[in-house]
Write a structure and sequence with these properties.
Number of strands of chain B: 0
CATH superfamily of the largest domain in chain B: Cytochrome C biogenesis protein
Strand content of chain A: 5-15%
Distance between the termini of chain B: 85 Å
Structural class of chain B: mainly alpha
Distance between the termini of chain A: 61 Å
Helix content of chain A: 55-70%
Helix content of chain B: 55-70%
Oligomer: heterodimer
Radius of gyration of chain A: 27 Å
């Protein structure tokens, strides 16, 4: 009964979104403001309605209503309440609803703002938001109903939305329980962050679409949405980092990124989003690349849809899975439709999107930003090809293949290196005009610094050529960024008579996006240290040892002390925990407790590593196997992951950088237009 | 070419000699085989080195060395057995490909197609961008209303601009 109520509300929400789409289009075409207002109010209604739907689902999840298929699949009696709530996004049907719910919240937020200056955009922003919502809610209503209930029919137990004839409701005693991998705190926050990033990228797309339809193709849409795009990027980035940390802590393979299609699905909109954040500045400052920015935001939107679809469905694993899945073709149809419509609109508005200025130098800031875009798009091409290649291969040759990390690493490494080089050069180039001479004058000092650092690393740390190239680039970017920062602060100090700290503070406060961006660059380099560390220097060993015996790896010695196994009945988990002593160069450092958690309800195990983290390296010990009858011998796998913690350190600074860049800045709106003129005329660095 | 012909015309015409050579080769093979079969059991690291390069035929996107399933444990044991039987890394990989198809390999066997398509796409993109640059930089495009940039940067443009901008924002 309650489930039916939930489904009813969901269905009404679907109708409301469809109504909103038609009302907005009709109101705009016939110039009836009341109709557009009605569409807006209808859209505002979706959030309370979806909140009610979600409330019903959470009620069912928390109260063990296992007659509901979704509840049966993702929860069990032994799960604590908070996990039952977060199980909402632990399965396909629930996560689609979660997506729609977030989308409706963002869409409502957007329509609550003042629209006086942009009234003509409103109906089309509503159309895009509501078409997207209608699609996702429609998926829930017609294909992935989270409220479907289990019925005992003559054919067996089947899920149905409505009570079929000659059947009785079937209520299992207990649910199957959430996949233990999804019970980790990282996995509880990771999907919401990713989805927040996903849905907030819909807003810039909605405005771009509105600009194309209405023909108001100046940069107003960009000014209105740039902060949205930054916040979207923040959420998406945070989601990706959390996902990596989760993989590192839970998946037990000693790495943080496996180039899995699901990871790549979330990474692809991040790539286009990052390219967009850069290229949008060219439009703001120079009035160029209007077509390209439109295209980037459209691509990001469609990759968001693609990513949402890929994350849970797993249908790209084979042609058959894709063909059999009801939602696969629909998702592709939707992506195709939105892509074609949007691109057709760009072509229709081609002339009004022409550049206002011309490119004057291959070394100007805008030219380098374009190169940056090329590199991001190249990485996207590699990722996209890698994800769809198995499908294409199976379709044309019948051969199932895997595209694993070696492909991605080989193909993207030079592209990432080129990006880093660009990150070192671009901050020193000027908008409009730069020459080899002007660039050279600024870059030679940081370059010498980077060469010295690399030489020192060669002597003291490594002879690995790839890693040394990476470290050189990192050093260059860090030095250039600091140099650029200090140069600005010094100029202020001289001009305004401020001390250096006040100068640094004011500089950042006055141009948050630029200096926030620099902090992001710096953090990226810290993250790169971690990535190069683990990719180039990771070592591992595995062996079976008895109590008191040791395994040696790098400078570490791991000695097996004891093993205990016990049941936690209320949680329905069996823990097997080993205790190992660790030594570095013979010096005792402490104990680690690698363990294996076995969940009775879902019959799945989770390998939790024992980790000792320092900035130098991570000692990562896994309990692989042990003697069931006695505790004499156990198999351990040990990784030493050099420098990996720089990745996590960098990600904190990264978040700080984005928050600085995205922080609301009232002045910006006011001075936006004059600043652009000034910049075009003076053509100095920004 | 000459060498090839001369090697082909080696005087192994005597069937007895040929048989003796073959027998000696066979003995050598047996000796080699038994020696390796009697060798020490391969370590976990040796097994993992190969397992790492293979993908679990059952679970998706999981290398065989880290897959926790029972099936994968058996496959790792199989690798160990094959190693102790003297099989080479290539032979073991080939065996898995024959048994479970090319998807057990971390990369598609037809690498050319896998790498060529993105490479061509990227080159095309670069070409397009380069053409775009050249088109933009043609002076004839400078239309009325477009602001001509300063060809000659001032003495210290950065400092001047920065100050000017900061003053404006005050």
């Amino acid at each position: 009964m309650i489930a039916n109520f939930g489904f009813g509300v969901l269905f009404i929400t679907f109708l409301v979104t469809v109504y909103s789409v038609f009302a907005a289009i009709y109101g705009d075409r016939r110039q009836i403001p009341a109709m557009v207002e009605s569409a807006r109010r209808a859209m505002l209604l979706t959030w309370p309605l979806l909140t009610l739907t979600a409330g019903v689902l959470i009620y069912l999840l928390v109260n063990n209503h296992y007659e509901v298929q979704f509840v049966y699949e993702v929860t069990s009696r032994s799960m604590p309440t908070y996990l039952k709530v977060t199980a909402w996004w632990g399965g396909q049907a629930g996560s689609l609803l979660f997506w729609s719910w977030l989308m409706s919240a963002f869409a409502s937020l957007v329509t609550l703002r003042k629209w006086d200056r942009d009234r003509e955009f409103l109906p089309w922003v509503i159309v895009v938001a509501c078409v997207t919502m209608a699609f996702f809610i429609g998926m829930n209503v017609f294909f992935e109903n989270p409220f479907a209930q289990l019925y005992q029919t003559t054919a067996g137990i089947e899920p149905h939305t409505f009570h079929p004839a000659n059947s009785i409701l079937f209520t299992p005693q207990d649910g199957r329980g959430l996949n233990p991998l999804l019970r980790h705190p990282g996995m509880i926050i990771h999907p919401p962050m990713l989805y927040l990033g996903f849905v907030s990228f819909v807003i810039p797309y909605a405005f771009a679409f509105a600009a194309l339809i209405t023909g108001r193709t100046d940069d107003r849409w960009i000014r209105l949405t740039r902060r949205w795009a930054l916040w979207a990027w923040l959420f998406l980035s945070f989601g990706l980092v959390l996902g990596s940390r989760w993989a590192y802590d839970v998946l037990g393979w000693g790495g943080f990124w496996g180039w899995d299609p699901v990871e790549i699905a979330a990474f692809m909109p991040w790539l286009t989003g990052t390219a967009f954040l850069h290229s949008v500045m060219i439009q703001e400052k120079r009035g160029m690349l209007k077509h390209w920015n439109m295209l980037l935001v459209i691509l990001t939107y469609d990759l968001v849809i693609f990513g949402t679809f890929l994350t849970r469905s797993g249908v790209l694993s084979s042609v058959h899975a894709f063909a059999q899945s009801a939602i696969g073709p629909l998702f592709f149809g939707f992506i195709g439709l939105t892509l074609i419509t949007s691109v057709a609109l760009i072509i229709y508005r081609w002339n009004s999107l022409k550049s206002e200025t011309v490119m004057t130098s291959m070394l100007s800031r805008e030219a380098l930003f374009l190169l940056n875009n090329l590199l991001f798009m190249s990485i996207l091409v590699v990722c996209f090809w890698g994800v769809i290649f198995p499908l294409i291969s199976e379709l044309f040759t019948g051969q199932k293949v895997t595209v694993g990390p070696p492909f991605y690493e080989r193909a993207t490494a030079p592209l990432f290196a080129a990006l880093m080089l660009l990150m070192g050069i671009a901050p020193l180039s000027a908008w409009g005009h730069s020459t080899v001479k002007t660039l050279g004058r600024s870059i030679w000092k940081p370059t010498i610094g980077a060469v010295v650092i690399t030489a020192l690393l060669f002597v003291t740390y490594t002879h690995h050529i790839g890693a040394l190239i990476g470290f050189f680039l990192i050093a260059l970017v860090i030095l250039v960024t600091i140099y650029e920062y200090l140069r600005g602060a010094y100029a202020r100090q001289k001009g305004q008579g401020e001390n250096i700290f006040t100068a640094l503070w004011t500089l950042t406060g006055r141009n948050r996006r630029r200096y926030g961006g620099y902090i992001i660059h710096l953090s990226m380099m810290l993250m790169a240290i971690g990535i190069i560390g683990i990719e180039s220097f990771q070592v591992e060993t595995q062996g079976r040892i008895g109590v008191g015996e040791s395994l040696k790896l790098s400078n570490y010695t791991v000695t097996y002390r004891e093993l205990a196994s016990w049941d936690d009945q209320p949680k329905g988990v069996n823990y097997t925990r080993a205790v190992v002593d660790i030594y570095r160069n013979g010096i005792y450092l402490g104990q680690l407790h690698p363990r294996r958690d076995y969940y009775y309800d879902s019959q799945q195990a989770m390998t939790i590593p024992g980790e000792r983290a320092t900035l130098r390296d991570d000692l990562y010990v896994l309990l692989i196997d042990w003697e069931p009858a006695s505790t004499t011998g156990a198999t351990f796998k040990i990784f030493v992951n050099p420098l990996i913690n720089w990745l996590w350190l960098g990600s904190f600074i990264f978040l700080a950088g984005i928050i600085i860049a995205a922080w609301p800045e009232k002045e910006m709106e006011r001075v936006a237009v004059p600043v652009r003129r000034t910049i075009q005329q003076t053509s100095a660095a920004d | 070419m000459k060498a090839l012909y001369s090697s082909q015309s080696l005087p192994i015409t005597d069937p007895k000699l040929l048989l003796a050579i073959l027998f000696a080769l066979f003995l050598g093979f047996i000796a080699n085989f038994t020696a390796s079969a009697q060798g020490p059991t391969p370590t976990d690291d040796e097994v993992n080195r190969i397992a790492k390069q293979l993908y679990c035929p059952v679970c998706e996107s999981t290398p065989l060395d880290v897959c926790p399933t029972e099936a994968c444990r058996q496959w790792r044991d199989l690798i160990r057995t094959m190693l102790s039987d003297g099989k080479s890394e290539a032979e073991i990989k080939q065996y898995f490909v024959e048994q479970y198809g090319a998807r057990v390999l971390a990369e598609p066997p037809n690498r050319l197609v896998a790498y060529l398509v993105p490479a061509v796409a990227i080159l095309l993109g670069a070409l397009l961008l380069f053409r775009g640059f050249r088109m933009w930089m043609k002076p004839s495009i400078t239309e009325a209303g477009a602001v001509k940039p300063d060809a000659k940067p001032s003495q210290d443009p950065y400092v001047a601009r920065l100050e000017e901008e900061l003053k404006k924002r005050k």
